């Protein structure tokens, strides 16, 4: 054991003397700190935006009170009044932004058809959406493997090429101890850096110190161990430094870039889903067609869904609000099968990605970290369902005014339902990903150790 730690100290001195590696490690540290800064800044920006929404809703109410100073028709209020369904992030969201950078985190709602509002979002730069946002999870999943490769591609080959390995193995030391010492120093460096960044992120984002911290640490450690296992496999082949570098970078390209891309193509092909735009277009066509249909036909279809309003007065006027909102809702009902197919298709896609995550530890780690942060696809779908229920509550609130012809007063604004939704960590998904990573680590390390045993270390 004393020899082992002597070799570890020697490797530490060698690392400090390699200015390029020190600079690279420092650069990764700075990039990681920037990822933490970007993630926390983005989530703080979203929180500040969400905090302004009640004020905007209040201003809208004040404007309506001026526009309708006395008792008003509830149809006018429902048409002009804007409210919001909001999706609050967890404290973990700044560590892994996940779906929050591509999907809306609030929905502006009126009493009109839901689907056209649910899939509307702010205009964003498509180039930014394509490249994605920068957070700590991105640094850990995509950049840390490159750091491991840079530190370890010449684990034994450089000393073999310089003739040092012959002299080293001439001493009373086993080859396995040499390899273990070299890997240990690099493992301590990388894990120390990863855990330091994680600790800074946890403190910066004020993440509660509960069991989720342990799951995050375990995911990070296992992911790094996986890549060191890949290094062990390539090292066991006992080729020169150039071959090792090309092989490891090739492994990074395959596991981090190519396989996730192929996985995405396969999932898209096997689990096709209708687009949100298709839902919106069909809903709008149904709504626009409602103007030309007989009012009796529209109301009979509506009363089939809501028989409690069938005893209301027959519509004889050219325009009446309850008829207008009836065919707005029928527009939503016309695309209900498409909505169900869209939502179920997205869930099936996510489930398929989870099952196939074995083939790409990068995908597995990314999905697990996003699930832990409450920024994954199931969480976004849960928010959409919550927004749908809120719209149903708004309709249930306004329908008595509309169908019973009750005047809407200023005091009634305070009775209107409100909405809030806060993400929760998907611990089941994160824990499942943890076990998959553990199996992947076991496979690569078992392969590397087996190769080291069947191919005795050749110092020349």
TrEMBL record:
Pfam families: DUF3526. GO terms for molecular function: ABC-type transporter activity. Keywords: Membrane, Transmembrane, Transmembrane helix. One of its GO terms (cellular component) is plasma membrane. The keyword Transmembrane helix applies. InterPro entries: DUF3526. The chain crosses the membrane at residues 21-40, 136-156, 187-207, 213-234, 246-267. This is ABC transporter permease.
């Amino acid at each position: 054991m004393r020899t082992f730690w002597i070799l570890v100290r020697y490797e530490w001195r060698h690392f400090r003397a390699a200015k390029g590696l020190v600079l690279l490690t420092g650069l990764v540290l700075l990039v990681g700190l920037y990822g933490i800064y970007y993630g926390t800044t983005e989530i703080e920006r979203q929180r500040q935006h969400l905090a302004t929404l009640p004020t905007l809703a209040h201003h809208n109410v004040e404007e309506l009170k001026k526009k309708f100073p006395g008792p008003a028709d509830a149809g006018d209020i429902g048409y002009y009044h804007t409210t919001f369904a909001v999706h609050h992030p967890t404290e973990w969201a700044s560590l892994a932004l996940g779906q929050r950078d591509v999907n809306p985190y609030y929905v502006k709602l009126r009493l009109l058809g839901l689907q056209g509002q649910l899939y509307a979002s702010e205009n964003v730069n498509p180039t930014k959406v394509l490249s994605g946002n920068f957070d700590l999870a991105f640094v850990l999943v995509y950049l840390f493997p490159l750091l491991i490769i840079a530190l370890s591609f010449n684990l034994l080959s450089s000393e073999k090429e310089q003739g040092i390995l012959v002299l080293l193995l001439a001493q009373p030391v086993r080859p396995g101890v040499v390899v273990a010492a070299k890997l240990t120093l690099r493992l301590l460096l990388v894990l120390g850096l990863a855990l330091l960044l994680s600790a800074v992120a946890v403190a910066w984002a004020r993440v509660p110190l509960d069991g989720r911290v342990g799951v995050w640490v375990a995911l990070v450690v296992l992911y790094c161990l996986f890549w060191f296992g890949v290094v062990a496999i390539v090292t066991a082949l006992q080729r020169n430094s150039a071959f090792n570098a090309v092989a490891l970078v090739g492994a990074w390209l395959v596991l981090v870039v190519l396989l996730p891309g192929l996985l995405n193509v396969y999932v898209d092909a096997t689990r096709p889903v209708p687009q949100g735009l298709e839902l919106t277009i069909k809903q709008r066509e149904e709504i626009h067609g409602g103007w030309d249909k007989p009012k009796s036909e529209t109301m009979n279809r509506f009363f089939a869904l809501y028989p409690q309003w069938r005893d209301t007065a027959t519509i004889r006027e050219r325009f009446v609000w309850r008829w207008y909102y009836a065919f707005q809702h029928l527009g939503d009902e016309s695309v209900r099968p498409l909505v169900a197919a869209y939502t179920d298709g997205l869930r099936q896609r996510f489930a398929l990605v989870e099952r196939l995550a074995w083939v790409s530890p990068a995908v597995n780690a990314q999905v697990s970290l996003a699930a832990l942060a409450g920024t994954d696809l199931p969480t976004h779908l849960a928010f959409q369902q919550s927004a749908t229920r809120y719209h149903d509550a708004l309709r249930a609130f306004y329908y008595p005014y509309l169908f019973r012809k009750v005047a809407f007063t200023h005091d009634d604004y305070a009775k209107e339902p409100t909405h809030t939704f806060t993400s929760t960590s998907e611990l089941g998904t994160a824990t499942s990903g943890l076990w998959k990573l553990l199996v992947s680590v076991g496979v690569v390390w078992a392969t590397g150790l087996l190769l080291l045993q069947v191919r005795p270390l050749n110092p020349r």
